[in-house]
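User: structure tokens for this one?
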Amino acid sequence: MIEYKRDIPLDLDLFIGLYRASTLAERRPAEDREVMRQMKDHASLTITAWDGDTLVGIARTLTDFAYAAYLADLAVAQSHQRRGVGKRLIEETRAALGPQCMMVLLAAPAASDYYAPLGFSHSDRAWMLRGDDALR
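Assistant:
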């Protein structure tokens, strides 16, 4: 039985360990503890999934709770994937947001096909400026 919790204090090593267990660490700065700490501590909304005392999933969101929510990370340990944990994390996140709040995300390449069957629509209007990109 998976238990879902909202905005609970989270140990940094558990947080980083989940990113590694889910392979999301391949696209996040998991080796930089300070950046990971800030990612963990400054999220507007965090929903976690627990199998007993084991952290098996997280939805980390930046939001105003009314208009827009950026689902910055959806990570599920490989051992718990394909069991509905990711979908439930999204459901719990939506339940915590205002009823008109739009959820947006950037999909990892391997997860690109995951979101459409859940009802997400694809947008070709997204733009990115990475931290090390020059503003021209």
